[in-house]
Amino acid sequence: MFLLGFKGFAQQESMYTQYMFNRLIVNPAYAGAKDGLNLTGLYRHQWTGFTPFNGDPRNLTFSAHGPIMDGKSGLGGFVNSDWNGVIQKNTFGVAYAFRFRLGKTGSVSLGLNAAFQQYKFNAFQRNPLDKYDPSLPNGSSTAYNPNLGAGLFYNTGKLYAGLSVQNLMETNINILKNTDVDKAKYRNHIYFTGGYDIRISNDFLISPSLFIRYVAKTPVQFDINCNFTFVDRIWVGATFRYKDALAGLIGFHLNPNMRIGYSYDYSFFGLNRYNTGTHEVMVSYDFGNIARSKLQIPRYF
After folding, report:
1. Are 53 and 206 a contacting pair, CB within 8 Å?
2. Which of 194, 237, 241, 209 is nearest to 222 (CA)?
C-alpha cells in the first residue's frame, strides 16, 4: 500500500484534524504569532484497527515558537514522526518569520523553515504475508534529506489567512534501492488556511475555518471546519473533509495558559468498513507575554 502511494505521488506530509492548533507545522510564517512562547503537542492514530500488524498510520508532533526582537520576528522549531506500516518518517525543523504592520489592525509575516527529513524502512514490522516478497529487503534501510519551506500569514486578530509551500526541494527519497520508492521524490505541498472569529456575545464565539491542500498529480483536498467557543473555556466543533471523513472536535481551557483538545474522524469512503475511526489528541501551553510588542494583536486561534 505504501509503495503504491508513493508511485502515485500521494500526499507525503502529515494530515491533522486540529490544524487550527498546529499551524507552525504547516506554515513557518506563523512563528511568533502569539504573544509569548507556545508549546504544542499532538498525537494522531488514523484508521484504528485497519490492520492487525501495527500498520495503522500514526503521527506524533511537537512544536515550540515565540516572538523575538520585540515581536517583529518569530522563531520556532518542530519535531514530527509518522509511522505507516513498515515506514517511519521523522522530520526535525526550525522556522523563522518576519512580521510587519499592514493597515490599522492587520499584520503580515513572511516565513521560512529548514528541515531535516529521515525515512526508515523496518522489515521486522512488515505484514507476515509479505515475508517472501522479493521486492522488499530483509533488513532495514534509512535515507536522509534536507528540505525547505516558505509561507505568508496575514492576521487582524479576527480574520487570518495563510499560504505556504513545503518540500521546496524535490529531491529523491532513495530509501529502497531498485523499487518504486527508490524512484519517488519529495513533492511540493501547497497549503492554504483561512478563518474568521465571530464574537456573538461575551460568552459565545463562532470560528469557521478552511484548510486546502494540494500536491502535484493528486486531487485537491480541503477541510471545512466550524468551532463554537463558550465562555472562552470550552469549544466544540465539526469538520467536513472532502471525499474522506466527518470529524467532531471538543476542547477545554484548563487555565488561561493551557488547553487540551480531542477529535474523532469517521471515514465515509470504502475503508470505513475496516477501521473504527481516527483519534487525535492535542495539548498546548502558552507561557504568557515574554516579548509584548505593538505589532502583537489579540487572537483566539
Report:
1. no
2. 241
Query: Coil, strand or helix: which one is 272?
Result: helix
What is the fold of 2-286?
Porin (2.40.160)
Q: Which pLDDT score is estimated for 183? A: 62
What are the residues whose beta carbons fall under 8 Å from the beta carbon of 205, sequence distance 6 or more? 197, 198, 199, 228, 229, 232, 300
Q: Kindly give, in sequence order, each residue whose CB lies less than 8 Å from that of residue 75, ignoring residues fewer than 6 positions away.
A: 31, 32, 65, 66, 68, 94, 95, 96, 97
> Nearest to residue 284, comparing CAs of 27, 26, 43, 29?
43
Per-residue CA distances from 166 to 24, 38, 150 (Å): 12, 22, 7
For residues 188 and 167, the answer to whether their CB atoms sit within 8 Å is yes
Beta bridge partners of 94: 77, 114
Cα 220 to chain centroid, rounded = 16
Task: State pLDDT tens for residues 149-204.
Answer: 999 999 998 999 999 999 999 888 877 665 555 567 888 999 999 999 999 999 99
The position carrying cell 502515485 is: 8
